[in-house]
């Protein structure tokens, strides 16, 4: 499995559902999930490349729920052998602070307008709303805590750009075995989410601007993340053709039941995977589950295919624990083959490319950490750097900026992620980037060591 890229796919963890009197059962489930990975999956599959979470990280969208989620994810990453920054997330309906919606008539009114808009007019209405100075500030207010959490993992969303594309990671970590790139693309299906959400009577909206996945570069293979499955979308008919033609794998959550299907439309195959929930609602069938998904390329040039291996883990058995879902064809994993576009790797990206990139990457990272690089790489380890910077307490972030004379009066009141972005830009301009990286990493590591 060494040449495969392998990810945990979790959904609907619902951190702090404990407040609903479920403390011990949920904690036990999370412990058992980690135990399953450690004892059963990691020995077979080796180190993982990261964690994909398709929404409902929290239960009520509160800040304390994300603090607990981050701590648990840190431990999970350490266990599966990847950096703690290697997590990708999208918001779910439980990441919305419902009280903020309930108490805002303008917000409820906007939701109603968008939910009831004619499909043919919906994209324009969404764009106009998300660009409106008044509306945009209130529309994303209920997911402010989620946004702060997601920005640590470079999964930032804003009203102007409610989707993200994976970027800035260590170069070797998303290279498939033929040197092409596996790219993640995260979407926000919670723009109008509130207590009215209903798969039949009050659907959600996405908008086509969120699925304009670039097509010009055949070296990139896209895997999308979205919380709500497509049947929950009012603009389902607008979205499906884009996903079918541009995403090779589409991951969802929310349903609390697993559903996997390989669809083919006009020669394009897309694997749709709706994950089961780690913590399902207790009033539905009690069957927590999660998936492990591995990717690799088979064949080359005009005969390239993406091979996808899905390991479904389900709760059950006489000694309650996670185990293989043998109901799926009686096999430990299911295997899918998805034809890809023709791609001729540049000569430099032959079979040696991955090793070369890995060596260069490790060398750069070491230099960055040691602080002896003449040209610190912004790309190398940038997710790790962002994660560490944004995980520091606010006063530490400001203190680092002030010490390096990167803080300016105009920064008062900006969000932490904007502040960090400004510090990086100024550090780059003033030739202090290396100093900033060293300071952030040493401060983070010291705080982690103190705990
Ligand atoms: Fe959900």
Give a written overview of the molecule.
By secondary structure, the chain is an alpha/beta fold. The protein has two domains: 5-339, Purple Acid Phosphatase, chain A, domain 2 (4-Layer Sandwich), CATH 3.60.21.10; 347-450, no CATH class. It has helices at residues 23-45, 63-80, 98-102, 105-116, 119-131, 133-139, 144-151, 236-246, 353-370, 382-391, 394-403, 416-429, 433-450, and strands at 5-10, 50-53, 87-89, 164-165, 181-186, 220-225, 249-252, 259-265, 268-274, 289-298, 305-316, 321-324, 334-339. The strands form two sheets. Strands 1, 2, 3, 10, 11, 12 and 13 form a seven-stranded mixed sheet that branches. Strands 4-5-6-7-9-8 form a six-stranded mixed sheet, covered by helices on one side. Strand 10 (289-298) and strand 11 form a beta hairpin. It is globular, with a radius of gyration of 22 Å. The two termini are 35 Å apart. The model is unreliable at 348-380 (pLDDT under 50). Bound molecules: fe (ii) ion (FE2). Residues 12, 56, 92-94, 227, 254 line the site of fe (ii) ion.
